[in-house]
Amino acid sequence: MGTGKVSLGCRGVVRCIGSNSALAVVVATKGEKETVGDIVHMCAVSGTRLIRFSGNSIELGAACGRPHSVNSLAILEAGNSKILTEEY
To answer: Can you give the residue range of the structural domain that contains 64?
Structure first.
């Protein structure tokens, strides 16, 4: 989060997938089923890599260093992170 660029939230993620600017999308597996389902479908159609976070949206928000819940995020630039080279 510190060196890369991300878009947080469902609306931002959908926008990034639609404009093909998302390198990968991370979704909380224990999140809202409808919203996550739409994002998963859009990733499959567009060919965007999907990473499923094993926790809920509160845990994903904490992992991002945010004081609120984050249901999904789009990775626009990885920065120093190795998230795009790891297997999930």
So the answer is: 5-77
Q: How far apart, in whole angstroms, are the C-alpha atoms of residue 31 and residue 33?
A: 6
The C-alpha atoms of residue 5 and residue 75 are separated, in whole angstroms, by 6
Domain count, the chain: 1
Judge whether 15 lies within some domain: yes
pTM: 0.84
Q: Per-residue pLDDT tens for 27-66?
A: 998 766 777 888 999 999 999 999 998 888 899 889 888 8
Q: Return d(Cα 23, Cα 63) in angstroms, integer.
A: 19
CATH number at residue 35: 3.30.1330.30
CB 28 within 8 A of CB 59: yes
Given the DSSP bridges, would you call strands 5-8 and 72-77 parallel, antiparallel or unpaired? Answer: antiparallel
Residue 28's φ and ψ, nearest 5 degrees, are -80, 125
